[in-house]
Each structure stands twice: as structure tokens, then as C-alpha cells.
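Hey, can you fold this one?
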Amino acid sequence: MKRKLDSAKKIAALGIMAALIIAGKWSLVVIPNVEVVTLFCGLFGYVFGFIAIIPATIFCIEETFAWGVHTWVLVYFVHWNAVVALFALLGKLRRKPPKAIDYVLPVVCAVVITVLFGVFSTFVDAVYACVYSSFDKFFIYFGTIYARGIVFFIVQTVCNLVLFSTVFHPLAKLLFAINDKVFPPNEPMTKEP
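Sure. Predicted structure:
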């Protein structure tokens, strides 16, 4: 019976994570490229580990249903799951008590992976454009598409810099505390280092 209860708790926790990502995204949809999806995917990966790929994937599926299929679907499935995986690795490297690098590294990683989102999405769109013309024009397409979206990429990067600098660690501390209370100390959803 205890095993079923623990499984139900894990399923409920994963559902809440997916709901937070989706609700957070939709709550800010009117402000272009200001988003909390990176923050939530990073937090859930950092605290709960690789199992947080499940809510990130649910988010990608929901977005596909909402907006239809195009090149961005590939970008989303790769990017959001990469965010979770990167932060799951950072969570495993986290020391107790935290050192200064434990506060700086997640911020740097969030900024870098946000910049890479712009590069990767531009790359996918440029390849798609080349399929219908010629691959010798790849760099022209890449430069044009990236230049067209540069303001959005900058806004998204600054947004994540501010969010990760200010709220990532307090929220991670809160999630670790919740994890310890919801799941027994001898069997947490993920083990804290």
C-alpha cells in the first residue's frame, strides 16, 4: 500500500510541475519572450533530477496541440528537455552547504542555454528554408532569420538572467523543503546531495 501511495505522490508531483510550466507560460504569453518556462524546467531538474523531463515533455506536447506542428516543435522537445537535463546535472553537483559557485553556475548556465535556444531555433529554421531552396544559401538564411529575432532573443536572455539571479535559489530551497516533507526522508522523490 505504501508503494502505491508513493507512486501516486510522484504522479501528482509530476502533474503539478507540468501544470506550473504550462500555466506560467500562458500567464505571460502576452509579453513576447518574457517567460518562466526556463526557470521552472531548471528548478524541477535541479531539485527532482531527470524525472522532470516528464513535465517538460508534457509542456511540449501541450504546445504542439495549441499551436500546431512546425519547425519549432523539434526545437522545443530538444531544448526544454536539455534544460532539465543540464539542471539535473547541476543539482547532482550541488554541495551542502552551498558554495559561491553553486549560486553562480545555474545563472551562467541559464543565460548560455537561453542564448543557445536562439541559435538552435535559427539553425533549424535555416535548414528548413534550405530544403525548399538550396543549402548554399544556409548562412544567408541563418543570418537573416537570426537578425530578425535578435530583439526577442535578447529579451528572453535578460529575462532569464534576472529570474535566475533573483529567485532561482530561494525557490530551489523551498522545493527541496517540500520534497523532504511530501516524500519520506528515507525515500524522497530524488535524493538531495
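The radius of gyration is 18 Å. Let me know if you want another pass with a different chain boundary.
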